[in-house]
Fold this sequence. Notes:
This protein is mainly α and 268 residues long. It has a domain at 58-231: MetI-like fold, CATH 1.10.3720.10. The chain is 81% helix and 0% strand. The protein is built from twelve helices and no strands. It has helices spanning 2-33, 49-56, 58-90, 94-109, 112-125, 132-156, 162-168, 173-184, 186-202, 205-210, 218-228, 233-267. Helix 6 runs antiparallel to helix 9 (186-202). It is globular. The model has no long low-confidence stretch (mean pLDDT 84).
Amino acid sequence: MKKHLFGTSLQISLTLLTFFVIYLPIAIIILLSIHDSQYVFTEFGFTFRWYRAILDDRPLMDAIFVTFQIAIISTIVSTLLGTLFAIGIHSLRKSARLRVMVLNNVPVVNPDIVTGIMLFMIFRFIRISFGFPTMLLAHIFFSIPFVILSVLPKLKSLDPNLFDAALDLGATKFKAILYVIVPSIKVGMIAGALIAFTMSIDDFIISYFMKQGEFHNVSTLIYSRLGKRQISPAVFAYNSLVVILTVSIMILFNRMNRNHQKIKGESV
């Protein structure tokens, strides 16, 4: 009994410690975003002026625009391509599918700096101008494997005769995929899209190798300002808004997933 109680207490303590380490930096950033002074932290004054200061910081606004533009485009493209690749991989024989999945998992387990250097060398070799095109292509490249990993489990849970039944009823292969397979795996597609969006908006290492000159997304802009000691609390305000946006999207997705499971359970 005592051993069981000790194990439970240790489990709870480690869980609380993990959450503390993860969420403490987020809490500090949010507090700094509503702190009145830029440099003095001995007294706390409440303000929202740093959120308004985001609009006055032109380089930051440009970097935010680039960040979201690349994140949205790369998410759409990687979700479409990743879903098509996942459907293709799922249709392979088991031995071939395992070999392809090993190749798919290499970019996932690869350190970001290795991927960044590899893409830098490839783009330099084929002489693509560094900036928006290279950053967008890089984000699509590292997002696709995560979409595939999100979609494949949904494909495996489908009835294997579903696609053949659609073909027997007169549907073309394209229509069978579009109207039968895609609606059945949309939860996996949404999950993959959320992961791709989060990774794109959060990426620094690979983006750093893809930029040139004064072209920045938010992460590379913050890094460039760190060296000059020019960090404004407007950056903390932006990061707080991103946290709120991310949490809101995750809550919305979980609610949609719960409603989907509830409807599916009622239909059964």
